[in-house]
Recover the amino acids of this structure.
């Protein structure tokens, strides 16, 4: 999408960068959240802590007051139950009682102690803060009657917490012992020490505090509207946290203890703490970031890079190196999986290679030539059989056009036509024969074409499949000839057998006439005629033998034979004396290895062909005999320099009884042909008029 | 090895016996009462001086009064006494003499005693015309008054008679000066008899007749007991007195909870202690007799609590013991420790004595009227019977006359 010419391109970010950025963002986010949360939490926590502390303080103070009260009660009861207290009270021993009270007061660290004999009648007491006038008659009466025994009494300067206990003898109240504890600075200081708060004790218009807190400040706090409701509930004011604990007597608050916590310092500390938190959070985050990045680098980035390099190596085809990381984490697992994958890839590659090689071997070993051509009529592949069949000079390199415009292609035109036709057609065609000349020899190919389709069934070319059926055709022709020859042979054999016996009788008769009968006249003619009869009969026997040999050849008895020896042996069977000026040339006969052949039959075949060549050669001609291996086949060539053979003659040359000579049976080449065929070979004749003839035996 | 060990053990034992016997002849053991007069440290110091002078070691044992009698009696039962010298209460003299627990005082000492000690004191240790102990402690009772309370009651001088005593006490009570003006040690023990003795004397009588026989039921004794009962009933006498002995009574007085008390002379020392409220406000005076006694020319009576030093009969060091007794009870010692009234007349008249003990004249006059508790070998039993009935009368269980009559009957039964 074109944004008016400014194409925004998203930059490519590496994972490491993304992770790093994410980490930084997360760390910063976490730091900010932490800081804010901490600040809020600290602030709230501090308030809650203060409130909790204050509540704890209030409970502590109440508990302390209760303890004081309980202690007072216990001590009062203890004292009032002492025998001496009872006795001295009962028997009016005021001074001794006072002495006793003084001892108890000192040893038990009690406050003021007073003994009353009856309401309003103060007997004696100890302690400076106690005075009989501090307690009203009503209060004393109540105490005597066993009523409320706790009072907050107002001394001249300090209030006192007084607990009364009756002094009894035999169930009779004889006095009242009052134990007072000054609610003075020491009392306040004790509470303050226990609670670590500022304590302001207010009673009857008087106020005691151990801290330097002004009355005006206390007044201001105490008279705040918030302090009027539920005084025992902790209130958080601007500078103080306050709670009030009323001390009640007869259900009425007589005194109040205010607990104050100056929160100024705490607020200042909180602010300082926040600053420190901010700095420390920043430092910690920075450190965390550094550590995280280092950790990421070590635990992820480095092994990832190593993995990437390994992947690149694999992508470049290097499957030999393992991915080593040494990590025991997921990367370690990944390394193991990667290496396993590598091994599998190596194996697969090997298998693919083997498969490819196998396919190549198949293609290469298929005797059928395979050529693929793309839609541009360019060769895209071909196999060895194609090269062999077409011949190297006819093969085209990959990418070459099968029908160059300049007609320079050595590709057989007929084949090119069929391939081109195959490109045009989408159907499969088979069995179409083309004939082209290769190395002077006529080659017949059976060609099939088929469209070459891609995986998506789209035509991308054509496949040309062709095989050299030249031999097949020749075999067919020879089969036809052989069939005919076999039929002729059968017939000839039958005739030969029919003739042979009479010829035998005739020969014997002729030999008897020649040898046993004496003529009286024309003895020379008689001898000549009889000898001629016998010779002709021999000749007929020879013909018949040849005919029988042709009609019923013997089975070949194969053995390794040297061509050279065979040729020489064959030549030995020939009347070379009859051709004194004829040159016999042996070429490379020793270059070919021995071959399995029937020695006698092959000598006969070679003899027949050599005789034919000698008979066809001019007087001073040369008969050349050569041998070579061609594609594993043994080629034996026997060439003469005769007048050559016409095509018609070539076509019949191996027919039985066909001869161009005045003499001869016409079976020699047929027999040679038969023998060669028995060796599963082939025999061809190549000849041009005036240029001699070459017989080629292929075994 | 066993034989040698046995010999060594025998030798050691023999040596110890020799040393013991040798040491025994050079050692004295003395039983002294802890709360008796003279500070134990002074006695010890005197004993150390004796040791230095004579080479005779004196081992002192200070015991409570209640244990003293028992230890003396136990020691007497042994072949060799645990104690060579004992400090004995006069009330034991007759019994110890009768039971031959103690030896008579040697004549030379008797002469010294007769010369130097007033007969009122020395006679207390006479039984069967024999002096059995050298007087050592001149304990007797005086009357003590809280002058502040007295002045609050409107009086400036202690009473001279029992009647005045009652009058002042009543006034003080009425005025609310003090609930119970008088505190006396009337616990059912020997202290009760002591009060009874001086009170009987205050009414002109005693607990022995002219023949020295026990006479607990007589006019004077009845008046005395009736007086006590009356004081209780009127609320002049602190009823707590019935539960207390001399020390507490002294405490009650010296702490200002009594206007009057009668007690042993140790109270004079307490009155000089500054921490006591009585300090500067207490005054010792003669125990007031009944007016009639005075009118008849009688004098103030008191009760003796003398204690003397005796040598036990089974002591193996009698000579040394008498020697130490003489040394300890000498005027030299007593004039050095004038916090106790000396038994020696010569010390009484010395200037220093007057300086140290401003009450010496009073004491001298009071001791002239000393009355002894019955000197009788069975005095302890007599005392128990008498205590019982006096106490019953004080508790209001019986009348004073009936109480004394019963006491008499029981005491007479003892003789049988």
């Amino acid at each position: 999408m074109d944004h008016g010419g400014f194409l925004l391109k998203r930059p490519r970010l590496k994972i490491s960068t993304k992770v790093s950025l994410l980490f930084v963002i997360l760390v910063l986010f976490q730091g900010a959240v932490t800081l804010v949360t901490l600040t809020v939490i600290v602030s709230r926590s501090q308030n809650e802590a203060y409130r909790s502390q204050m509540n704890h303080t209030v409970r502590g103070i109440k508990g302390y007051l209760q303890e004081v009260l309980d202690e007072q009660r216990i001590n009062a009861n203890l004292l009032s139950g002492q025998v001496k207290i009872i006795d001295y009270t009962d028997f009016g021993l005021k001074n001794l009682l006072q002495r006793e009270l003084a001892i108890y007061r000192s040893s038990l660290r009690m406050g003021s102690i007073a003994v009353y004999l009856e309401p309003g009648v103060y007997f004696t007491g100890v302690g400076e803060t106690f005075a009989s006038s501090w307690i009203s008659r009503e209060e004393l009466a109540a105490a005597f009657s066993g009523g409320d025994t706790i009072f907050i009494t107002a001394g001249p300067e300090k209030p006192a917490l007084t607990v009364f206990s009756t002094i009894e003898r035999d169930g009779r109240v004889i006095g009242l012992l009052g134990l007072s504890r000054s609610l003075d600075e020491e009392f306040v200081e004790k509470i303050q020490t226990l609670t670590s708060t500022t304590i302001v004790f207010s009673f009857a218009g008087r106020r005691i505090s151990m801290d330097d807190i002004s009355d005006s400040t206390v007044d201001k706090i105490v008279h705040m509207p918030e302090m009027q409701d539920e005084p025992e509930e902790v209130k958080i004011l601007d500078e103080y946290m306050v709670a009030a604990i009323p001390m009640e007597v007869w259900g009425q608050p007589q005194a109040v203890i205010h607990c104050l916590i100056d929160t100024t310092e705490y607020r200042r500390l909180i602010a300082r703490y926040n600053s420190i938190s901010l700095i420390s959070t920043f430092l910690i985050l920075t450190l965390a970031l550094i550590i995280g990045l280092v950790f990421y680098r070590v635990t992820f980035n480095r092994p990832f890079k190593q993995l990437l390099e390994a992947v690149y190596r694999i992508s470049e085809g290097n499957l030999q190196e393992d991915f080593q990381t040494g990590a025991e984490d997921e990367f370690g697992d990944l390394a193991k999986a990667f290496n396993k994958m590598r091994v599998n890839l190596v194996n697969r590659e090997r298998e693919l290679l083997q498969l490819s090689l196998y396919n190549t071997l198949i293609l290469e070993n298929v005797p059928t030539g395979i050529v693929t051509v793309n839609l541009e009529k360019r060769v895209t592949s071909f196999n060895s059989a194609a090269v062999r069949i077409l011949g190297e000079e006819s093969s085209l390199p990959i990418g070459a056009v099968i029908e160059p415009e300049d007609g320079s292609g050595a590709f057989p035109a007929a084949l090119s036509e069929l391939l081109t036709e195959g490109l045009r057609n989408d159907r499969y065609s088979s069995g179409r024969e083309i004939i082209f000349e290769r190395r002077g020899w006529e080659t017949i190919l059976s060609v099939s074409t088929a469209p070459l389709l891609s995986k998506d069934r789209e035509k991308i070319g054509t496949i040309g499949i062709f095989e050299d059926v030249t031999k097949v055709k020749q075999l067919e022709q020879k089969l036809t000839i052989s069939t005919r020859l076999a039929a002729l042979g059968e017939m000839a054999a039958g005739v030969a057998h029919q003739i042979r016996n009479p010829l035998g009788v005739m020969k014997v008769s002729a030999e008897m006439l020649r040898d046993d009968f004496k003529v009286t006249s024309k003895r020379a003619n008689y001898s000549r005629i009889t000898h001629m009869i016998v010779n002709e009969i021999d000749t007929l026997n020879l013909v018949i033998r040849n005919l029988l040999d042709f009609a019923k050849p013997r089975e070949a008895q194969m053995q390794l034979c040297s061509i050279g020896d065979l040729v020489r042996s064959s030549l030995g069977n020939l009347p070379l004396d009859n051709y004194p000026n004829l040159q016999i040339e042996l070429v490379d006969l020793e270059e070919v290895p021995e071959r399995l052949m029937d020695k006698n039959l092959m000598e006969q075949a070679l003899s027949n062909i050599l005789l034919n060549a000698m008979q066809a050669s001019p007087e001073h001609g040369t008969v050349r005999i050569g041998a070579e291996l061609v594609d594993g086949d043994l080629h034996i060539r026997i060439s003469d320099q005769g007048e050559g053979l016409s095509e018609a003659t070539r076509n019949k040359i191996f027919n039985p009884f066909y001869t161009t000579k005045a003499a001869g049976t016409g079976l020699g080449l047929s027999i040679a042909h038969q023998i060669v065929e028995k060796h599963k070979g082939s025999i061809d004749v190549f000849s041009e008029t005036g240029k001699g003839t070459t017989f080629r035996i292929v075994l | 090895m066993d034989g040698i060990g046995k010999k060594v053990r025998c030798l050691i034992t023999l040596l110890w016996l020799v040393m013991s016997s040798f040491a025994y002849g050079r050692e004295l053991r003395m039983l002294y009462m802890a709360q008796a007069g003279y500070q134990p440290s002074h006695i010890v110091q005197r004993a150390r001086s004796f040791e230095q002078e004579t080479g005779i070691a004196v081992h002192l044992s200070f015991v409570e009064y209640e244990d003293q009698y028992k230890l003396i009696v136990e020691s007497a039962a042994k072949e060799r006494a645990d104690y060579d010298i004992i400090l004995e209460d006069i009330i034991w003299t007759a019994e110890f003499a009768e039971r031959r627990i103690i030896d008579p005082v040697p004549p030379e000492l008797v002469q010294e005693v007769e010369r130097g000690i007033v007969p009122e004191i020395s006679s207390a240790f006479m039984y069967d015309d024999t002096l059995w102990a050298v007087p050592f402690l001149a304990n007797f009772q005086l009357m003590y008054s809280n002058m502040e309370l007295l002045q609050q009651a409107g009086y400036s001088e202690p009473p001279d008679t029992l009647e005045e005593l009652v009058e002042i006490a009543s006034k003080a009570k009425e005025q609310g000066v003090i609930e119970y003006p008088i505190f006396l040690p009337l616990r059912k023990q020997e202290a009760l008899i002591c009060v009874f003795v001086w009170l009987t004397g205050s009414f002109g009588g005693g607990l022995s007749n002219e023949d020295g026989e026990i006479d607990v039921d007589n006019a004077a004794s009845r008046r005395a007991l009736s007086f006590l009962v009356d004081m209780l009933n009127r609320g002049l006498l602190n009823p707590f007195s019935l539960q207390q002995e001399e020390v507490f009574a002294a405490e009650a007085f010296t702490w200002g909870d009594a206007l009057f008390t009668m007690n042993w002379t140790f109270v004079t020392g307490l009155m000089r202690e500054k921490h006591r409220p009585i300090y500067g406000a207490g005054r010792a005076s003669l125990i007031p007799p009944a007016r009639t006694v005075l009118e008849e020319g009688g004098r103030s009576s008191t009760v003796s609590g003398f204690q003397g030093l005796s040598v036990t009969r089974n002591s193996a060091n009698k000579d040394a013991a008498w020697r130490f007794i003489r040394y300890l009870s000498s005027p030299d010692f007593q004039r050095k420790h004038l916090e106790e009234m000396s038994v020696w007349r010569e010390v009484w008249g010395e200037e220093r004595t007057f300086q140290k003990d401003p009450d010496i004249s009073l004491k001298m006059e009071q001791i002239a009227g000393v009355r002894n508790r019955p000197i009788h070998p069975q005095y302890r039993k007599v005392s128990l019977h008498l205590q019982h009935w006096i106490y019953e009368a004080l508790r209001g269980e019986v009348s004073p006359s009936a109480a004394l009559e019963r006491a008499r009957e029981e005491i007479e039964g003892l003789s049988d």
Q: What stands out?
A: The mean pLDDT of chain A is 81. Residues 15-80 of chain A form the longest helix (66 residues). The longest strand of chain A covers residues 441-453. The radius of gyration of chain A is 70 Å.
